[in-house]
């Protein structure tokens, strides 16, 4: 039986919400713990489904992993297994982050081609070519990516696109390579900076994290550490857009606002009053939001993971919006669900044009990925009656206590089981 959310439209969300650690950081940090023998501790970990899934992947490699609230402890043995468990890995994209650490530690890695969200083609060619530059031989074999290396050597690497995952795997392999690696066109996302700061606290030598050129001087070994995961900028941004869509007033804590600079600027252009603090921000929207154009780009551009929220806001904004998706080709599948809610939107290739309406029209909608699911819940809050959002397991993968947080902010939303509605 699958869970659904019944969402009553017409709410005005107001109050304070604290965000937990970033999903897209914690999973990579858990993978990076493979690089050092001993016990690594992570704090501020979010309680989302992908964390126990990652625990299963690491246990399959020989680690002992305990999860206690927001604290995760990973004890990594001297000898790791280098074949990641096929079933565990296939369930979520971030599992591919064990490729770099395993290649560096074991000289061999076999990781099933990961599954995850239905947002478009997600090849691993840049991960493979990066590892090959470091001296590994890679291939795709029986549904898995295999990397083998007698020894990794530092190299000059330039990737075609600032891929987050490829940047991470190259860094986590290069930290134990002999010599210096210079990675050009690296991803600049805050989660890359978080990973590098943890690696530095483990003894790695890395400079330039957060810029397009990252320099890594390999060291013979790393030691375990304790590290606090950065706040989840996508969850935080979701709350900011929720405030604007429901003409509400939400203060978000647990997040560095510089990680959301452009999304918050867009909210200002849409008419919101935005205040930023050292560890959070407040978004208040008094009237109807105005239409603002967006194009998704790697950080510091507008994040593709907030594109569903931008679409949601545009469907109830005054005027016409154009949104261009430049990162994932199939992310506009979500628009079909918005059409069910009465949104006026037309997709043309990687553009969508939206004419905003005063109110959406309640119905049944289906989540296709984590962020689309959250976007549908926000849209349902702007509809006239009660909507049902299906396949909410996607949302549970990325938004801890979503229903509880929404309820505390004044929404009427309940979790139920699907079969009771047929
Ligand atoms: C990560 C995030 C995801 C976010 C995305 C972009 C995690 C678990 N997921 O995904 O939420 O939406 O960054 O910010 O952290 N590509 C290739 N070849 C490669 C690698 C990537 O063609 O070898 C392409 C992808 O198909 C995509 C683009 O590059 O079109 C960006 O992907 P990438 O930055 O690698 O995203 P992920 O790390 O998968």
Listed once per kind, the bound small molecules are: uridine-diphosphate-N-acetylglucosamine
- CATH class descriptor of the largest domain: Alpha Beta
Count of spatially separate domains: 2
Rg from Cα: 21 Å
Strand order of the largest sheet: 21-22-1-23
CATH superfamily of the largest domain: Enolpyruvate transferase domain
Strand content is 25-35%
Helix/strand structural class: alpha+beta
| Total beta strand runs | 23
The tally of helices reads 14
- What is the terminal-to-terminal distance? 12 Å
Query: What is the second-level CATH architecture of the largest domain?
Result: Alpha-beta prism
Q: State the shape.
A: elongated
Describe, in plain words, how this protein is organized in 3D.
- With 422 residues, this protein is of the alpha+beta class.
- The strands form six sheets. It has a four-stranded mixed beta sheet, with helices on one face.
- The chain folds into two domains: 3-19 and 231-421, Enolpyruvate transferase domain (UDP-n-acetylglucosamine1-carboxyvinyl-transferase, Chain); 23-228, UDP-n-acetylglucosamine1-carboxyvinyl-transferase, Chain (Alpha-beta prism).
- The relative contact order is 0.16.
- α1 (23-32) runs parallel beside α2 (50-60), α6 packs parallel to α7 and α8 packs parallel to α12.
- The N and C termini lie close together (12 Å).
- A hairpin with a 2-residue loop joins β19 (344-348) and β20.
- The chain contains 14 helices and 23 strands.
- Bound molecules: uridine-diphosphate-N-acetylglucosamine (UD1).
- Uridine-diphosphate-N-acetylglucosamine (UD1) binds next to α5 and α6.
């Amino acid at each position: 039986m699958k869970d659904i959310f019944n969402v009553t439209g017409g709410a005005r969300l107001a109050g304070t919400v604290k965000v937990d650690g970033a999903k897209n950081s914690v999973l990579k940090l858990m993978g990076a713990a493979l690089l050092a023998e001993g016990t690594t501790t992570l704090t501020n970990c979010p309680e989302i489904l992908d964390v126990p899934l990652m625990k299963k992947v690491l246990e399959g490699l020989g680690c002992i992993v305990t999860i206690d609230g927001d604290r995760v402890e990973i004890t990594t043995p001297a000898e790791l297994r280098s074949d990641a468990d096929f079933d565990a890995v296939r369930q979520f994209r971030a599992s591919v982050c064990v490729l770099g650490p395993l290649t560096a530690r074991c000289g061999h890695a076999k990781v099933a081609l990961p599954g995850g969200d239905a947002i478009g083609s997600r090849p691993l060619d840049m991960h493979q070519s990066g590892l090959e530059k470091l001296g590994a031989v890679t291939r795709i074999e029986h549904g898995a990516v295999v990397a083998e290396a007698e020894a990794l050597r530092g190299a000059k690497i330039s990737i075609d696109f600032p891929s987050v995952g490829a940047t991470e795997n190259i860094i986590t392999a290069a930290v134990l390579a002999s010599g210096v690696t210079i990675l050009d066109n690296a991803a600049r996302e805050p989660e890359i900076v978080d990973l590098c700061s943890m690696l530095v606290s483990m003894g790695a030598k890395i400079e330039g994290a957060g810029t397009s050129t990252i320099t890594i001087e390999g060291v013979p070994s790393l030691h375990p550490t304790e590290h606090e995961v950065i706040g989840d900028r996508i969850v935080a941004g979701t709350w900011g857009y929720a405030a604007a869509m429901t003409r509400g007033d939400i203060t978000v804590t647990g997040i560095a606002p510089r990680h959301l600079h452009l999304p918050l600027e867009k909210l200002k252009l849409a008419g919101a009053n935005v205040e930023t603090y050292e560890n959070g921000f407040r978004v208040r929207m008094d009237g109807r939001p105005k239409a603002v154009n967006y194009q998704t780009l790697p950080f510091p551009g507008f994040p593709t993971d907030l594109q569903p929220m931008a679409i949601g806001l545009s469907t109830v904004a005054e005027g016409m919006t154009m949104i261009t998706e430049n990162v994932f080709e199939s992310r506009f599948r979500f628009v079909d669900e918005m059409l069910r809610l009465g949104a006026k939107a037309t997709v043309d290739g990687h553009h969508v044009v939206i004419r905003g309406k005063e109110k959406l029209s309640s119905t049944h909608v289906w989540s296709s990925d984590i962020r689309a699911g959250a976007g549908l819940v926000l849209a349902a809050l702007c509809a006239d009656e009660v909507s049902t959002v299906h396949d909410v397991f996607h949302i549970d993968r990325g938004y801890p206590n979503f229903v509880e947080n929404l309820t505390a902010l004044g929404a009427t939303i309940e979790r139920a089981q699907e079969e009771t509605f047929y």
